[in-house]
Write a structure and sequence with these properties.
This protein is α+β, with helices and mostly antiparallel strands. It is built from seven helices and 14 strands. The protein has helices at about 75-80, 90-100, 120-125, 135-140, 150-155, 220-225, 235-245; strands spanning about 1-5, 10-15, 20-30, 35-40, 50-55, 60, 65-70, 145-150, 155-160, 165-175, 180-185, 195-200, 205, 210-215. The strands form two sheets. Strands 1, 9, 10, 11, 12, 13 and 14 form a seven-stranded mixed β-sheet that branches. Strands 2, 3, 4, 5, 6, 7 and 8 form a seven-stranded mixed β-sheet that branches.
Length: about 270
């Protein structure tokens, strides 16, 4: 199911033996545009400490009850590695995190794709959740993390092929793959009152330093895209119209639409 990421805010996370807290924001991988961690505010339980919960642990999503059930215990989460959500999450921290929970690292091997299998699925159990070896951990610590805060990226300016068109207002997420399917773009600075959706696969360049995203679409094309209304469910009919307007193949007709790192560069780099 596709949903607006604003619905994640305040969602209750329930462990096998009690409630952990509520979702505050999330971290996504800027290579695959996949949600890697939910930031959970534990409230009074852990004196307001914020912890990270991976979607790998999700057993089921109960949207009417606004709750995510996870295959974790409260003790596991209480003893999990501390994280400062006011600072970028380092790869060294991620190595510690996946080692603690016994996950395979998503940044290498079979789980590098668009998303990863959830703990309750047969794909997860067949892939295994082995601890990192000492040599693997050392190698991973040397790599850079590509995590971005959902709160921080909201507000980034969108540049079409022929000029600025608006800014990132939010995200539309697939709750099966936990992939960001679309960026919600507010064009009211150029097209009063209209919001549209753009796939991360159409991003040509990103400048994290300048808070800008460049897409390979003209302003006219974006203007012609069907209007997005947050309270209206996204149907396959709507998506078909969206992809037809942009002249792009839909993600469900391809094995993986999100491109790998080389196509997403800093705007300051030569084209």
């Amino acid at each position: 199911m596709l949903f607006n990421a604003t619905y994640l805010k305040g969602l209750v996370i329930r462990a096998t033996d009690g409630e952990l807290g509520t979702v505050d924001q999330f971290y996504f991988d800027d290579q695959m545009w996949t949600i890697r961690y939910l930031v959970v505010n534990t409230g009074g339980w852990l004196n307001g400490r914020r912890v990270l919960v991976s979607p790998r642990s999700i057993l089921q999503t109960d949207w009417p009850a606004r709750r995510l059930d996870v295959a974790l215990t409260m003790k596991q989460v209480e003893n999990s590695p501390d994280v400062d959500t006011q600072k970028p999450v380092s790869r060294q921290y991620e190595v510690t995190y996946v080692g603690y929970y016994g996950y395979s690292p998503y940044w290498g091997g079979a789980l590098l794709g668009e998303g990863f299998p959830l703990m309750g699925s047969s794909a997860y159990h067949s892939s295994g959740a082995a601890q990192l070896g000492a040599s693997d951990g050392a190698q991973q610590e040397e790599a850079d993390s590509h995590l971005r805060s959902s709160d921080a990226v909201a507000g980034y300016h969108i540049e079409a092929s022929d000029g600025e068109i608006g800014h990132v207002e939010g995200y539309v997420v697939d709750d099966e793959a936990w992939a960001i399917r679309y960026l919600e773009i507010a064009t009211r600075n150029w097209l009063p009152g209209k919001k549209v959706l753009i796939s991360p696969a159409w991003i040509e360049q990103v400048s994290w330093a300048d808070s800008k995203v460049r897409v390979g679409l003209s302003r006219e094309t974006i203007q012609d895209a069907p209007k997005y209304v947050e309270t209206t469910p996204i149907t396959r009919e709507y998506e078909n119209r969206l992809f037809a307007t942009y002249g792009r193949a839909p993600y469900w007709s391809q094995k993986s639409e999100i491109p790998s790192t080389p196509s997403v560069r800093n705007l300051s780099e030569p084209r």
